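QA checklist item 7 of 12: single-chain prediction sanity check.
[x] sequence parsed
[x] length recorded as 158
[x] structure emitted
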Amino acid sequence: MTRIHSVALARTMTLTRYLGAVAVLAVGVDHLEQYYVDYYRAVPTIGTLFVLDFISAAVVAVGLVLPLGRLTRRLGDRLLTLLALAGIGIGAGTLAGLLVSENAGLFGFMEAGYRSAIVLSIVLDVAAAALLAAFLALRALSQAPHRDSPTHRNELAR
């Protein structure tokens, strides 16, 4: 991989990481807005889950934008991986919860119809999961041994 390709890969990784963090935070803000504006706070269990979704999304989003690599490279890399996986879990989990509440009901609550807030939630959930999955894939690609590296040549010689 040439230097130009590795710089482009690093920039793309950073961009997907930050956009993923924004998408996860947007998922949380959307749920907090629904909690207050559409009175989901009155729905037992679901209201509490909406607040917990916001809190977890905010923690994960802040963690994803912090310069964790400055702690130590190994610890920072592991934390970024865990945070990205948590962000994917938030996006996928809220999407799954929405789909279950649309079709079968969730904790005694059944969502009806696809109003704009639900469509926005679906878009944000998919965006968060896709961007953070892309970030993890790009990180794995960047950490793989390169063809011209001594490690790769040694493996080929065996």
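[x] summary fact logged: The chain has a mean pLDDT of 86.
[ ] second reviewer sign-off
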